[in-house]
Please model this.
Amino acid sequence: MLTKEQSTALAKEILQRSQIAVTEEELKNFGAWDWYLDDYEHIGVAGIEYCNTPRYCGRELIMTPGQIVPQHVHPPIDETNPGKEEMWRCRYGVMYLHVPGEPTPNPLGHVPETRKEHFTVWHEIVLLPGEQYTLKPNTLHWFQAGPEGCVVTEFSSFAINERDLYTDPEIQAHYNKS
Ligand code: ZN
Model:
């Protein structure tokens, strides 16, 4: 069992292993999201946001072994904005991405038994370093790091995190409050 501090330290180590250069300042502002579930070791992601303007967003996502970004969707914002489009490029380790489609038999991704019902898309895409995938807006997705963790660069349109919709009602309840 790792504490959030231990997981964060491990994430910084994984980022170092990836040899992606970041500044001291960025390391100081290292984000750690746990979606209020208090289970950061299993459901969480660390990140450095390089930019987020009304036109584009760039982030480094750093995940410890087996860590999960829970299932969600980026819905349309208004008539001019169909929702956030995301592209991930794996830089280090392996990322198991899950999207709608034919469920993958024997997927490599695995989720905690207690939350399994909140993960409904099981078409698995395995991204190795140098591989990338673009997800259209308004498409359910979740992802998980492989056994060495992973570093993934996320390129996207403007991120309005509070408009994301999560399948897990416990997570969504927090969003509705904020
Ligand atoms: Zn997303």
Q: What stands out?
A: The radius of gyration is 15 Å. Residues 4-18 form the longest helix (15 residues). The pocket of zinc ion is lined by residues 72, 74, 86, 141 (CB under 6 Å).
